[in-house]
Amino acid sequence: xxxxxxxxxxxxxxxxxxxxxxxxxxxxxxxxxxxxxxxxxxxxxxxxxxxxxxxxxxxxxxxxxxxxxxxxxxxxxxxxxxxxxxxxxxxxxxxxxxxxxxxxxxxxxxxxxxxxxxxxxxxxxxxxxxxxxxxxxxxxxxxxxxxxxxxxxxxxxxxxxxxxxxxxxxxxxxxxxxxxxxxxxxxxxx
Length: 190
Hints:
This protein is an alpha+beta fold and about 190 residues long. It has one domain (about 35-185). Helices cover about 30% and strands about 30% of the residues. The protein has 1 helix and 9 strands; from the N terminus they run αβββββββββ. The chain has one helix spanning about 10-65; strands at about 65-70, 80-85, 85-90, 100-105, 115-120, 130, 135-145, 155-165, 175-185. A 5-stranded antiparallel sheet has the order 1-3-4-5-6, covered by helices on one side. A 4-stranded antiparallel sheet has the order 2-7-8-9, with helices on one face. A hairpin with a 7-residue loop joins β5 and β6 (about 130). The chain is rod-shaped. The N and C termini lie far apart (about 110 Å). About 25% of the residues are buried. This is Type II secretion system protein J. Pfam families: N_methyl.
């Protein structure tokens, strides 16, 4: 009798079945990782947009002066504790209009630039435009201002508190955030 070397049909079927199961699990895991990576990149892009927006706000506020919260005469400096609007005189080196004011406002009801958006006006409130991406929904935003009285011993300071959610349109995942930023006026006011 000659001994034959090789695999039987049963052994081949079992080997192919095992290989198929391992490959199915591996491809499923790979596709899941690719999807999770896509979601993470989309959320990171949205959060980067929010961080850049807040950094620009803080830079503008830090270089500005004559902070005013709330409504009323926006050219008169005023302290506040938790208002949704902040007006200030922007930095200007030459040919400046003394009454020029920028305003940042949280739009809770859609009256400025869209519900749940952060809005900016560079012409004392005549026109507002959104400065946050549509994928960012702000649930609450408050400005706290101290030290606006000229000649006191406190340098003017603005604290910004933002809470909300962010999620990209392509993915169904959202993440909540709570950010606080502080801007101290650069122009000495002691």
